[in-house]
Specification:
This protein is mainly alpha-helical and about 240 residues long. The protein contains eight helices and no strands.
Length: about 240
């Protein structure tokens, strides 16, 4: 009988331990942090789909771009306008530009004598300035001029401007040709000047993108600028 009570006393502490263990809260499971995906925005793209190697003419002190159209007298200015309308007549296609060919031919026909005298004055200027090689120099200039107006990324806005200019070209009288040429050149250059500003903004945006998202590209671009600074054209 005494033996049985001893066993009972031994069982009571064991039951208490079980009750305490049941009352304890299980530890919360450890949740691994979820990695937030890093988003890299696309690099800026060139306006009008132009080449990333496009060279933008610098701004002069007078606020104009240093292009082939700068520092021309009235006759050369008009000749540059004539070249622009010629390029437009040859390259602008679509019903909205259908009148350009007829307008260009009418402009030439209405001002045949004036334009012939202008061309003669321009070639005489080249003869005075270039000597015996004047014809080659003049031909190179004309090629560069046509290439300038033929810049393909701006075909649409250039053609739009050319339509507006051509409508005035066919009604302008000879005594108004100089004023017409000066105003027309500004209008025809507008798409190019707008493009130059947009391209410079693209270059700034690309530089900021590189510094934030592709520092190695930023270093390469900086190295390229440093390595080409001071290089001169060989004679």
């Amino acid at each position: 009988m005494i033996q049985g009570f001893k066993n009972l006393r031994l069982l009571v502490p064991t039951a208490s331990v079980l009750v305490l263990a049941a009352c304890q809260t299980a530890p919360a499971p450890v949740v691994a942090p979820v990695a937030t995906p890093q988003y890299t925005p696309r690099a800026p793209t060139t306006p009008f789909g132009a080449s990333a190697n496009t060279i933008i003419p610098p701004l002069r002190a007078d606020g104009l771009r240093q292009t082939i159209n700068r520092d021309r007298g009235p006759l050369e200015t008009l000749w540059h306008v004539r070249a622009a309308l010629n390029v437009a007549a040859l390259s602008c296609t679509g019903p909205q530009y259908a009148r350009l060919v007829d307008d260009y031919n009418a402009f030439i026909g209405n001002n045949k004598k004036y334009l012939r005298n202008a061309y003669k004055a321009i070639t005489n200027k080249y003869r005075r300035e270039q000597g015996s090689g004047y014809q080659q120099a003049h031909d190179r200039h004309q090629t560069s001029l046509y290439n300038f107006w033929s810049f393909s990324p701006l075909r649409r806005p250039f053609c739009d401007q050319a339509v507006q200019v051509s409508q005035r070209a066919i009604v302008t009288k000879e005594d108004g040709m100089e004023d017409f040429g000066a105003a027309a050149l500004v209008e025809l250059e507008k798409p190019f000047n707008d493009f130059y500003l947009a391209y410079e903004e693209y270059e700034r945006d690309l530089d900021a993108w590189r510094r934030q998202y592709a520092p190695e590209q930023a270093r390469d671009a900086a190295d390229e600028t440093i390595n080409t600074t001071g290089l001169t054209k060989e004679n």
